[in-house]
Design goal:
The chain has 275 residues and is mostly helical. It has helices at residues 2-6, 16-33, 36-46, 55-62, 77-90, 95-103, 182-192, 200-208, 212-215, 226-242, 253-268, and strands at 52-53, 134-135, 177-178, 273-274. Bound molecules: fe (iii) ion (2 copies).
């Protein structure tokens, strides 16, 4: 699982039973409420690009997000981003990929203008974080807690509950609607940004990093094209650095900002980004 489990499990001491219950409840809500209609509605609602904000201001504001599954956790969100970026830098990966490590979860800042009813708030995060799946087609057993698949109203709708659903064979990943969350949100924000020159691989890493039933579970092959095989390689490459590795050294934000700021400006320009 992405954010809710992996980013936390080894990092702190907490009641394992409690965290499991909170994570499970998150996924129960996510699976039962993320329908095809919901996703289209969220795209229309949130992809308006009307809030200009500096990248670094956004980084700092994201830091205030407390994960509902672990409210006592005092590990700031930004630490995960800095550690992912630093992991890429230490491995000698290209500067644009280091930048992706730094910003890949920045779409979670959607909570700043989100709501409980949309699942995009501090209190309700089922439209913000967690492993995503395709909406408008049958939910696969490779989803975490597959027992919740039956709770999705679309699974009782003949338009949506088949292997292809509303899509066609080989339509390509980019033509699917995935559950709404921070990946898809940030992807569109960056795509809409006029001075964005992040390579295609980086954009794919942003967009599909939470798509675990596909990149790790092996589902949805019916939709894949030759291009998507390349996507898979990119995602698997990036995924190692998204894993939360315990580090005794907590990165120093101000210090690292000096290193990453020129890279961010190289690929995104110096002006504000419209969220
Ligand atoms: Fe993420
Ligand atoms: Fe992440």
């Amino acid at each position: 699982m992405e954010t809710l489990v992996k980013e936390k499990t080894d990092f702190r001491n907490y009641e394992q039973g409690e965290i499991t219950a909170a994570v499970k409840e998150h996924y129960r809500k996510m699976r039962s409420r993320q329908t095809y209609e919901y996703v289209l509605r969220m795209k229309k609602k949130y992809l308006t690009f009307e809030r200009p904000m500096d990248l670094w201001d956004m980084m700092e504001r994201l830091n205030a997000l407390v994960d509902v599954s672990d409210p006592d956790l005092n590990l700031p969100n930004i630490i995960h981003l800095l550690q992912s970026a630093e992991g890429l830098r230490a491995a000698g990966r290209p500067d644009w990929m280091q930048l992706i490590g730094l910003i890949h979860d920045l779409g979670k800042a959607m909570y700043l203008f989100g709501s409980d009813e949309d699942g995009t708030s501090q209190a309700e995060q089922w439209g913000l974080v967690g492993d995503v799946f395709v909406v408008g087609a049958k939910l696969p057993d490779t989803c975490v807690y597959p027992e919740f698949n039956a709770l999705n109203p679309d699974m009782a709708d003949s338009r949506y509950n088949t292997d292809l659903g509303v899509y066609s064979v080989g339509c390509g990943l980019d033509n699917l609607h995935l559950a709404w969350g921070h990946d898809e949100y940030l992807y569109h924000v960056l795509k809409n940004h006029p001075t964005n020159t992040i390579p295609e691989a980086g954009m794919v890493m942003v967009r599909y990093h939470s798509f675990y039933p596909w990149h790790t579970g092996g589902s949805y092959r019916q939709f894949m094209t030759a291009k998507d095989e390349q996507y898979m390689e990119w995602i698997k490459d990036f995924n190692q650095y998204d894993l939360y590795t315990k580090s005794p050294v907590v990165p120093n934000y101000e210090e690292l900002k000096h290193y990453y700021k020129p890279i961010a400006e190289k690929y995104l320009g110096a002006g504000p980004i419209k969220w």
